[in-house]
């Protein structure tokens, strides 16, 4: 797995594999346990395909009781567990462990309750993001967070990574749209947080769980907020001669107090790849493209479209086209949502980064990213949530060419360091996983990391749930504070930390 270090495999657990598989089959009978290597191959990686590792065994429970019993068995026997949803994680969050059970939640795939009066849906974690909207759209409702992978990604995975999407600028990330959870601790205990009510007393444990990347518990049920579809929604494509001028336009739109339902940006390589793939009518002469959507009452939308057009002209836009029908608006977004797979047409491999920056830093960061592209000798295509500063640079490389994966990882690390340097953060919605794990010291000092680890220890003091993710070093809970991180660097960096 390249130079990535993961926790050392427990040889005792490996030697007991047959016994463990047999015990798990007793808990999850039938086809709920997969132990043949050829059949487990589908689970060796997630969407961060640069890293692969075969699990000890794959378990697909169907009931909360089975999840509880599996986790309790693993707890009693010191066996690591990696929870997995649809496997669309772009940060390696579902990367298996050689000595760990991979717990797939994709048989939890039913919508349990639709409550229009409370504008809430209760669903199992294996239901897809888009599946929730499909279940309620006939009544004029929808689920707002819409990652580009929404046709495939599961709501449980959205909880784990606090996923966003093109409409998160106005309607928020997953954390802003989740009302309640049922989850199982590593000890097998089943607990509930929140519900259909708007808010809960006490500590906000619901927010703590959202974005916890499978390190604290396994989600078995989710209650989400649904919204009524707006009266009017229109999108405008605005082309620019430079990415910097497009970035300035983004900052000015937000600075004017306009909050679009979505505001996305693509640079020239991404524009051409998406247009060849979807034929959405994107301006191929533009160096940068903004897709700005306004929604609400028709009069308000018409007024705001005029305001956005004026701001775009002040920032030197070269073209502008507004949707005239719902079908045309959907086509505009189809190109953006297909941009990631479309880039596969121009490069055999790519790394999708996920840093977030202050909007005012967009022009500077886009310019410096081109300098980094020259430094590392690799192309980059930019597709990102411009309105909230969530960048998704796609670093193009060929894994079959010696050294290109290493160069791509170094390029990505430099981009994330740049994001932190200008006042941003390492991740906006993809999570830390293994991809950004060793960069956590760039953003957090030793005290920060120790306190985050204490939260992990409160839920999982044996560190059996998804170890090797998020934290740059994994030490026993009793040893907290003994590891010193200075200026983002660990002492003796050549020593494996696991």
UniProtKB/TrEMBL annotation:
PROSITE patterns, per database record: FAD_PCMH
Cofactor field: FAD
MF terms in GO: FAD binding; oxidoreductase activity
InterPro entries membership: FAD-bd_oxidored_4_C, FAD-bd_PCMH, FAD-bd_PCMH-like_sf, FAD-bd_PCMH_sub2, FAD-linked_Oxase-like_C, FAD-linked_OxidoTrans_Type4, Oxid_FAD_bind_N, Vanillyl_alc_oxidase_C-sub2
SUPFAM superfamilies: FAD-binding/transporter-associated domain-like (SSF56176), FAD-linked oxidases, C-terminal domain (SSF55103)
Keywords linked to the UniProt accession: FAD, Flavoprotein, Oxidoreductase
Residue span(s) of domain FAD-binding PCMH-type: 51-229
Signal peptide: none
Name by which UniProt lists this protein: Glycolate oxidase
Lineage: Bacteria, Pseudomonadati, Pseudomonadota, Alphaproteobacteria, Hyphomicrobiales
